[in-house]
Amino acid sequence: MAVQNPFFGKREPDTFQSRQPSSALGGTTTTTSTPTAAPATRTAVSTASSATAEGSGSKLTVGPNIKLKGVEITDCDTLVVEGTVEATMDSRVIQITEQGAFRGSAEIDIAEIHGEFDGTLTVRQKLVIFSTGKVSGKIRYGKVVIEEGGQLSGEIEVGLGGGARMSAASGSSSAASSAALAAA
Question: One Pfam family of this protein, by short name (predicted)?
Answer without folding.
Answer: Bactofilin
